[in-house]
Design brief:
Layout: E1 11-16, E2 19-24, H1 29-35, E3 42-43, E4 49-50, E5 63-66, E6 69-73, E7 84-86
Parallel strand pairs: 1-7
Antiparallel strand pairs: 1-2, 3-4, 5-6, 5-7
This protein binds FE2/S2 (inorganic) cluster (FES).
Residues 52-55, 57-62, 73, 75 line the site of FE2/S2 (inorganic) cluster.
Length: 94
């Protein structure tokens, strides 16, 4: 269940591809990636860049590695302090 503190924004210090970034706990990982100006979550098997399309857990285009776990949906995960997000890919998924 999502933590919610009305009117109180909680800073979540996360890592995106090895770089520190300050998100909030109200922000999805996909939103944090957009703010960070990283508009690629993975590569398709043919090497084309992919990013979030539906924003509701259906298209699977937003898959990233979070804390070492592959295939996490960036649009369905909220930022938490210490989270390590990796979007680097090999074309075979993340
Ligand atoms: S954006 Fe479609 S599943 Fe995340």
């Amino acid at each position: 269940m999502r933590e919610h503190y009305p009117g109180k924004e909680i800073i979540a210090k996360i890592w995106i591809n090895g770089s520190p970034f300050e998100a909030t706990t109200e922000m999805s990982v996909a939103a944090a990636l957009m703010r960070y100006n990283n508009m690629q979550t993975r590569q398709s098997v043919s090497g084309q860049p992919r990013f979030a399309v539906c924003g509701m857990g259906v298209c699977q285009e937003c898959r990233v590695r979070i804390n070492g776990h592959p295939h996490k949906l960036a649009c369905q995960e909220y930022c938490r302090s210490g989270m390590v997000i990796n979007t680097e890919t090999t074309g075979l998924g993340v």
